[in-house]
């Protein structure tokens, strides 16, 4: 039985209305339930203005709308925005350069398929409307200009090219201090750094998130807790967050207009020295361990390029599991990872004559819902599959248990411990609550003589972590600065304290000299 034309008309208009509603709620970070009243308003306008009615057809010319490509670009933007929240073009470019194989985003692959089907249906419906209603055909070329002018994705691309026409592309480079060490302590302390995927300090707000952060607050009482560590441009994904905190600089990708820009990278930031380089020269053994693949987004390349002796990820660690099937989309669950990390630190500490660095990366709180470990489910009850707060609580408890286990064995003697988020969370199931107020990264340090119970509130960013860690280790650094960062244990002003977050972000979008420094000698 064939569908009559009036039914086709309202099916097409209804799908267009749903797409308009979804776009509005995504762009303005509204709850998607608002799609329903937007759809109702759209259908009311369609009914009152008789969009697509047979009386509005003036010609039978089967022209293709000019808006099809701009509309397709909007769908690409909506997919990225709905997946990650704010779109970071630096992240998009770097992941294309460094490699996106072995990622764990299988959920987003399914979402991409659904987006593609919805987009194709929308383009077909819009083509029908333009052909069926001469008014839409007349005004459709104006719509093209609107779609191109206000697409945030295209706006982000133009911002990436701002350095080409800026009057001062070396503002940040003039403020860059090559990381260095002027004096070392009599006894070199060990260093343990745990990056917690997307577990930002914003979760301390119990009014919004309850008690999910309590275990991390308990850990913070051991030493110094830093509040006010913001996120600047080019530090909002895992590799970028680790690089910012270890190199004192945002991860500015290889220029988007460089030859061979999307060839696989063999080096990451070859033009600068980072924490691993500085400590490698002082005889430290250095190990990185994370549950996800080290081939994703250049993590493995970065650590191998900058002084680490062992770089271990999913490929190297999964064969060690007692249950080979106990894996998630990204890799090892955090209870498995931290158990292996405990054993590795025990081995590193067995040679007290050689100081060590251990860097670990969790993944329990990876957006949008997290991957809570089996041990957490036994403690917290059944996981509903969607609550990121359940996964954040899991991360907090596992990290606290890990640190307390090391301490119980005496493995934290002469050791500085740094607990940090890698970056602010991308879009997750608590997104509306996260963006309802100011946000900050997690950063705490304890051990190696730091005063317990101290709280430092300063406007800072992840680039300030490098000189702070160096001074917490007992090293003397030039003028309390390294890279673009200033030690938060010193009176030196941070860039954000001096200039403000928005100004620094604007300068990052125009900077070219620092970008050239980071990638110097890439060939």
Automatic annotation (TrEMBL):
InterPro entries: Alkaline_phosphatase_core_sf (IPR017850), OpgB/LTA_synthase_biosynth (IPR050448), Sulfatase_N (IPR000917). Pfam families: Sulfatase. Keywords: Cell membrane, Membrane, Transferase, Transmembrane, Transmembrane helix. Gene3D superfamilies: Alkaline Phosphatase, subunit A. GO terms for cellular component: plasma membrane. GO terms for molecular function: transferase activity. It is a multi-pass membrane protein. Residues 189-474 form the Sulfatase N-terminal domain. The keyword Transferase applies. The chain crosses the membrane at residues 12-28, 34-51, 63-80, 109-130, 142-158. Its main location: membrane. It is found in: Cell membrane. This is Phosphoglycerol transferase. It comes from Modicisalibacter muralis.
């Amino acid at each position: 039985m064939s569908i009559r034309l009036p039914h086709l008309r309202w099916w097409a208009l209804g799908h267009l209305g749903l797409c308009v509603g979804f776009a509005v709620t995504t762009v303005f970070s509204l709850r998607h339930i608002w799609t329903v009243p937007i759809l109702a308003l759209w259908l009311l306008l369609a009914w009152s203005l008789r969009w697509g009615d047979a009386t509005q057809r003036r010609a039978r010319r089967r022209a293709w709308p000019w808006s099809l490509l701009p509309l397709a670009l909007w769908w690409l933007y909506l997919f990225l925005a709905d997946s990650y929240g704010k779109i970071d073009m630096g992240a998009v470019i770097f992941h294309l350069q460094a490699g996106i194989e072995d990622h764990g985003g299988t959920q987003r692959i399914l979402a991409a398929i659904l987006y593609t089907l919805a987009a194709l249906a929308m383009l077909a419906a819009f083509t029908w409307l333009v052909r069926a209603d001469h008014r839409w055909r007349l005004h459709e070329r104006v719509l093209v200009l609107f779609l191109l002018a206000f697409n945030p994705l295209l706006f982000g691309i133009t911002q990436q090219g701002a350095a080409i026409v800026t009057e001062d592309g070396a503002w940040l480079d003039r403020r860059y201090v090559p990381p260095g060490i002027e004096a070392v302590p009599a006894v070199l302390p060990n260093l343990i750094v745990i990056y917690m995927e997307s577990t930002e300090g914003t979760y301390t707000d119990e009014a919004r998130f309850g008690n999910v952060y309590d275990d991390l607050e308990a850990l913070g009482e051991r030493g110094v807790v830093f509040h006010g560590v913001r996120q600047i441009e080019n530090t909002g994904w895992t590799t970028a967050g680790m690089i910012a905190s270890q190199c004192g600089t945002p991860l500015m990708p290889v220029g988007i207009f460089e030859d061979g820009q999307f060839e696989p990278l063999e080096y990451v930031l070859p033009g600068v020295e980072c924490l691993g380089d500085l400590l490698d020269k002082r005889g430290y053994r250095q190990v990185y361990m994370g549950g996800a693949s080290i081939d994703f987004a250049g993590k493995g390349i970065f650590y191998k390029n900058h002084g680490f002796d062992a770089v271990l990820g999913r490929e190297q660690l999964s064969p060690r599991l007692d249950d080979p099937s106990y894996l998630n989309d990204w890799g090892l669950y955090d209870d498995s990872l931290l158990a292996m990390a405990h054993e590795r630190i025990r081995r590193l500490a067995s040679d007290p004559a050689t100081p060590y660095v251990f860097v670990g990366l969790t993944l329990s709180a990876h957006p949008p819902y997290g991957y809570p470990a089996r041990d957490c489910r036994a403690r917290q009850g059944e996981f509903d599959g969607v609550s990121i707060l359940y996964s954040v609580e899991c991360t907090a408890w596992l990290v606290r248990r890990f640190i307390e286990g090391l301490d119980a064995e005496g493995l934290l003697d002469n050791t500085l411990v740094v607990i940090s988020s890698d970056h602010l969370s991308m879009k997750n199931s608590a997104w509306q609550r996260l963006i309802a107020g100011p946000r900050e990264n997690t950063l705490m340090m304890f051990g190696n003589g730091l005063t317990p119970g101290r709280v430092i509130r300063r406007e800072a960013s992840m680039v300030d972590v490098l000189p702070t860690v160096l001074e917490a280790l007992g090293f003397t650094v030039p003028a309390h600065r390294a890279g673009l960062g200033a030690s938060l244990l010193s009176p030196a002003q941070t860039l954000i304290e001096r200039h403000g977050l928005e100004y620094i972000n604007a300068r990052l979008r125009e900077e070219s000299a620092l970008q050239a420094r980071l990638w110097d000698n890439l060939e």
